[in-house]
Amino acid sequence: KQEDLIKSTEDKLRELQQQGGVKATLHGYGGLRFDIDDRVTGRNNRLGITVTVPVTKKIVKVSRGVMSVSYECGDKAAGQSVSLSGSGETGGGGTGGMSYVAGDGIRISSDRVISADVTQSKLDGVQATAEQAEKTASGFSAQIGLAQQDARNALAAANESVRTLNGTAPIHVWRSDDKASATIWADTVTTTADGMMSSTDKAKLDGLENYSLPVATQQALGGVKPDGATITITPDGTITAHGTGSGGSMYWPIGSIYQNTTGTNPGLIFGGTWERRPSLGAYTWEKTADDTTTVHSALGSGALGAMTLGGEA
DSSP labels for 217-271? Predict the structure, then answer.
């Protein structure tokens, strides 16, 4: 029966109330606002239990300019009353008075004006934080002072290291405050004095590697090369000119010695007068005179001149 169910539910609620207390925290969602000792009712429809508790504490917090409000509700152990009821039907609720409970640093006057004071414990915390900040700043200040002194010492050492400068000609050095400078003084080079090369001379020297010696002609100087027959050059650079006999063959000066294995008189080849000399080996011939035609031919070609060639002239 319905009456029996209601009675059984009330008996069960009384049993649960004796086993402990109920504590809830409320937030002002959806514009809800509560005062101290207001009663708040909540219902669990599944269990059919309704709980009514008083607002025992209103908590206001401000963080970075943003205020938040929260509430703490009835604590049975602290003497606050909690009402539990049960019903098989929806509905029910509770009403409450308008009393207020002051917390730490909060005063409530008789006309319900609430004022808050900053307590000494909070001031002590702020003071401790300020003292720690001052100590930290003092430590940084000391470190900055040491760094400045190190910088001054380094500057003094740098100035001392360049206090005296010595230069050897043509290098000229000088100092201005903490800076050192050097200049090389030199005259322009000449054929009789050392010095610096001009840009024009430098350009000429750079072009030497591209120089090609021209061939000598009757009108211009240039390079010549020996033919290896009438003009020869020894490894040490000595130039030797050889005259030619009649027919353009090599000229042999008087007193020259010629050897062959055929016994043929060399005068038949080179001209001139040759006499055979005793020899145990090859035939040996000595030139004793020039042919007139041969000498004139040689002199006419300009091959002999006044040079001594291969022996006595």
Answer: -SSS--B----SSSEEE-TTS-EEE--B-GGGPBP--TT-EEEESS---THHHH-
